[in-house]
Amino acid sequence: MKIKTPNALLRLRKHADYQRVYTSSRKQFSKQMTFFFSVRPADRRSETPGARIGLTVGKVMGKAVDRNRIKRRMRECIRHQAGLLHGPVDVILHPRRSILEMDFVKLEQEVASVFRTIQKTLDRQAKAPAAMPEP
User: Fold this and answer.
1) Are 92 and 22 spatial neighbours (Cβ–Cβ below 8 Å)?
2) pTM
3) How does 68-96 read in b/e, with b if 16+ C-beta sit within 10 Å?
4) DSSP class of residue 44?
5) CA quadruple 12, 15, 17, 21: dihedral positive or negative?
6) Is the dihedral of CA 19, 24, 26, 30 positive or negative?
7) Angle at the Cα of 113 (from 46 to 63), degrees rounded to 5?
């Protein structure tokens, strides 16, 4: 059996999971990125009990060198800030091209801000009383 690294466990990998997040959530914005998130259903089996995070960096972001640099920077920020998310949530981040020129510290703050926003929303949903079905 192959041992998975902590980064590999945090990744959202399957196309079906990406599609589920896109269809079950709304597009939300921060200064330097767009993000989607969805609570993972209980029937959706996963090796990861906590958050899984996916990145999408399309060809519109530039040549492969630029896209790969964006992904490397984002993965490192995600690795540092992933502890802010608790529970079974799937997140997709769409960074903007401006991330290439950003200071790394500011990028980390941006990712932390997005994760805090997601966690606050999840906490509010958990505290809200469940709707009672009518008889």
Assistant:
1) yes
2) 0.84
3) eebbebbeebbeebbebbeebbbbbbbbb
4) S
5) positive
6) negative
7) 75
Task: Give the whole-angstrom CA distance, residue 86 versus residue 113.
Answer: 15
Chain position carrying tokens 């992904």: 71
What is the residue extent of each domain of the chain? 27-124
> What is the side-by-side strand order in the sheet with 52-55?
28-29, 33-39, 89-95, 52-55
* Unique residue bearing structure tokens 């500011």: 106
C-alpha span between 58 and 61 (Å, rounded): 6
Tokens standing for 13?
């990998």
Q: What is the pLDDT along the chain (135 residues), one digit of tens a residue?
A: 444 555 666 788 889 889 999 999 888 999 999 999 998 877 766 667 788 999 999 999 999 999 999 999 999 999 999 889 988 899 999 999 999 999 999 999 999 999 999 999 988 888 876 555 555
Q: How many CB atoms are located within 10 Å of the residue 63 CB? A: 8
Task: Indicate the CATH number for domain 27-124.
Answer: 3.30.230.10
What is the DSSP secondary structure assignment for residue 79, as one 8-state letter?
A: H
